[in-house]
Write a structure and sequence with these properties.
CATH superfamily of chain A: MetI-like
Largest interface: A-B, 28 and 52 residues
Protein name (chain B): Phosphonate ABC transporter ATP-binding protein
Keywords (chain B): ATP-binding, Cell membrane, Membrane, Nucleotide-binding, Phosphonate transport, Translocase, Transport
InterPro entries (chain B): AAA+_ATPase (IPR003593), ABC_transporter-like_ATP-bd (IPR003439), ABC_transporter-like_CS (IPR017871), ABC_transpr_PhnC (IPR012693), MetN_ABC_transporter-like (IPR050086), P-loop_NTPase (IPR027417)
Strand content of chain B: 15-25%
CATH architecture of chain B: 3-Layer(aba) Sandwich
Helix content of chain A: over 70%
CATH architecture of chain A: Orthogonal Bundle
CATH superfamily of chain B: P-loop containing nucleotide triphosphate hydrolases
Helix content of chain B: 25-40%
CATH topology of chain A: MetI-like fold
Number of helices of chain A: 10
GO molecular function, one term (chain B): ATP hydrolysis activity
Oligomer: heterodimer
Number of helices of chain B: 10
Pfam family, one (chain B): ABC_tran
Structural class of chain A: mainly alpha
Order of helices and strands of chain A: HHHHHHHHHH
Largest sheet of chain A: none
Distance between the termini of chain A: 35 Å
């Protein structure tokens, strides 16, 4: 260790004889309040000068009420069958599951390269920059970009969703890896253990709860994306039927049913993730 | 036998951390390195298994110079040097026995190591070692549920699992209460005698060093100021070891 150099204690600054008034208005607070005040003014101004044209607000709200009523209180399968809708829903879930699993697998190995405590700085920074670039472009756009080369359909959806999932999970995973204590890694290094055994035997067990919860969040995001992608890329999943019933057939009963189905899946996903996390965390 | 000669280490451009450090440590003995904070105790210990790269000298373990080893040889040498730490450095979500088994990872192929494949013999050896440090009832407890003294004993069992020639102990009792300190030090002394291990140990507590060490290396400002059997230490030597570093820098500049 480095020796402690002799440091002479610094003399404390003498208290100012004149008492100074303490202002609560620090500079960051001033900026925050000015911005919020400005936004409030803009909002009020635009509300007051809103051009409603011929729209009658009371009728518009009444029509909204009717639509919501037919959507959520009278859901039905509409022109499609239960069988068709459930198959499409399963397809969406499978799409989300496949892309999350593929993404998680690739992301873990890339994240090892992107973690500053395991990899050389230049490599970690390069990977992080590339992943940040991929993330900054929305998933749907990636699906559309891939559909140019692969054609519209499920293939482009899988590749596009996986691509964006990898970029997202690499960030989450590499940050989890960076949080593991360097001491425990050093202990195994000191006993002559190689790089990959350390990754799998020391780092992985320490970060499994974090990995699980990030992967599950990504699963939920991918499910939402899969629905949207279904409509955009024609992957023939539940999103496609949602789009058709809403925009093409204007069948709000079916829109309502599909929304309920999606909600059900979201609730089930949440329950499963809670149980899984509980299983891995209960011993803490 | 561990023989260190002419070990040098400089941090940055001008700070001499170690200056011409020479000492030996014998199998079957507890060798303690004592000295004030920042004297270079940790640097010495970590140079011995090259966790810190030094700038010059020789570190011979059974006549093999660790400093000359390439990456692969270094891993093999390190596999036979156990190490325990002030903060135990166990993988805390894993059970005690899993941590002990980690001592075998250095002897495995990359794939077997990644998958954590251990033979039945290795598993029963791990259990025996846990029994040896008095933790047979805690084998399947998560390590973050164990007390500090128990975690340190798991650390010792992990080091023994490496079939070491030497165990390096970096401030092993700095975070322990007096009772756990006694248990841990008793185990280390017993291991040195029974298994003829070299035990090299950094200590802050002079009284513990006086009680347990066979051989003592006193260090001040990166230079050896005393090396010899425990009984040769007197009050004047101690004062010399622990004198203020400010004066020591000029005194020791040979």
């Amino acid at each position: 260790m480095i020796e402690n150099s002799s440091t002479t204690p610094k003399t404390l600054p003498q208290p100012n004889p004149k008492t100074k008034r303490i202002s609560m208005m620090t500079r960051p607070r001033l900026i925050l309040r000015t911005v919020l005040g400005g936004l409030t003014l803009v909002t009020l101004y635009s509300l007051l000068t809103l051009n409603t044209a011929n729209l009658k607000l009371s009728e518009a709200f009444k029509s909204l009420g009717t639509n919501l009523h037919s959507m959520f209180l009278q859901p039905s399968v509409g022109q499609d069958s239960w069988n068709l809708l459930l198959t499409a829903l399963t397809r969406s879930v499978s799409l989300a599951m496949l892309t999350t699993l593929l993404g998680a697998l690739f992301a873990f190995f890339i994240a090892v390269g992107a973690a500053r405590n395991l990899s050389p700085t230049w490599l970690a920074n390069t990977i992080k920059a590339v992943m940040a670039f991929i993330r900054s472009i929305p998933t749907i756009l990636w699906v559309l970009i891939y559909s140019v080369t692969m054609g519209l359909g499920a293939n482009a959806a899988v590749v596009g969703l996986t691509f964006h999932s990898i970029a997202y999970l690499v960030k989450a995973y590499s940050e989890s890896i960076e949080e593991t204590s360097s001491d425990t890694i050093e202990a195994l290094k000191a006993s002559g253990v190689g790089f990959w055994p350390i990754v799998f035997q020391a780092i992985l067990p320490s970060i499994i709860p974090a990995l699980l919860s990030w992967t599950f969040i990504r699963f939920e995001i991918n499910f939402a994306n899969a629905v949207a992608v279904g409509a955009a890329a024609g992957a023939d999943d539940i999103g496609y039927y949602l789009f058709m019933s809403g925009s093409f057939y204007s069948n709000f009963h079916e829109v309502g049913l599909i929304v309920y189905l999606l909600l059900g899946v979201a609730v089930i996903l949440e329950l499963v993730s809670m149980r899984l996390r509980g299983h891995y965390l209960q011993k803490n | 036998m561990l023989k260190v000669t002419g070990l040098d280490k400089t941090y940055g451009h001008h700070k001499h951390s170690l200056k011409d450090v020479n000492f030996t440590a014998q199998p079957g003995e507890v060798t303690a390195i004592i000295g004030p904070s920042g004297a270079g105790k940790t640097t010495i210990l970590r140079s011995v298994n090259q966790l810190i790269r030094d700038d010059g000298g020789q570190i011979l373990l059974d006549d093999v110079d660790i400093r000359q080893a390439n990456k692969k040889q270094l891993r093999q040498i390190r596999h036979h040097i156990g190490m325990i730490f002030q903060n135990y450095n166990l993988i805390s979500p894993l059970t005690a026995i899993e941590n002990v088994l980690h001592g075998r990872l250095g002897a495995k192929s990359t794939l077997a190591g990644m998958l954590g494949l251990y033979s039945t013999d290795e598993k029963s050896e791990a259990l025996t070692l846990l029994q040896e440090v008095g933790l047979q009832d805690y084998a399947y407890q998560r390590c973050d549920q164990l007390s500090g003294g128990q975690q340190q004993r798991v650390g010792i069992a992990r080091a023994l699992m490496q079939h070491p020639k030497m165990i390096l102990c970096d401030e092993p009792i700095a975070s322990l209460d007096p009772k756990s300190t006694r248990i841990v030090m008793d185990i280390l002394r017993r291991l040195a005698k029974e298994k003829q291990l070299i035990i090299l140990i950094n200590l802050h507590q002079i009284d513990v060093a006086r009680e347990y060490a066979d051989h003592i290396v006193g260090i001040n400002s990166g230079a050896i100021v005393f090396e010899g059997p425990n009984q040769d230490i007197d009050a004047a030597t101690l004062q010399n070891i622990y004198r203020q570093p400010e004066t020591a820098v000029t005194d020791n500049a040979n």
